[in-house]
Design a protein that fits this description.
The chain has 142 residues and is mainly alpha-helical. Helices cover 70% and strands 0% of the residues.
Length: 142
């Protein structure tokens, strides 16, 4: 990998980590709801470099951010890494195959939708184990 590309990807990751940590200080109505501003860095990496780099940025930003917050390998980390990776994969898929039909906002919405769905599914499979959790999914999914 050339030095310039590695430097830019490092900047994307570090910016994503900063946004990931800062976002955790915003008050939310429920513990699992957040704005998702750190995902914008993944989206920028997707448009700037491509699919592989966007997924790398998403995974590394979540791992490093969780390490900084002190939640690495706890249940929230497992949910976050699963949902973040799923969102990055979905945004990459949408960009690659439907990029001419969706704007950057549309691709971001698909990522946010998958983030929420994967988060609920992983939480249910690993921790909650009650079907009622699926009522938390966005309207129209159930």
């Amino acid at each position: 990998m050339e030095t310039r590309k590695l430097t830019r990807l490092s900047l994307f990751i570090s910016t994503g980590v900063i946004l990931f940590v800062v976002e955790s200080f915003f008050p939310t109505p429920f513990p699992w709801i957040k704005l998702g501003i750190a995902n914008t860095v993944t989206l920028i990496a997707l448009y700037y470099y491509g699919v592989k780099e966007a997924i790398i940025v998403a995974i590394l930003r979540i791992i490093i951010g969780s390490l900084i917050k002190g939640v690495l390998f706890n249940p929230l980390f497992i949910i976050s890494i699963s949902a973040g990776t799923g969102a990055a994969v979905m945004m990459s898929f949408t960009y690659r195959y439907f990029g001419n039909k969706f704007s950057v906002i549309g691709i971001s919405i698909w990522g946010a939708l998958i983030f929420n769905v994967v988060q609920i599914i992983v939480a249910n499979l690993l921790f909650v184990k009650k079907g009622e959790i699926y009522y938390l999914l966005p309207a129209g999914i159930i």
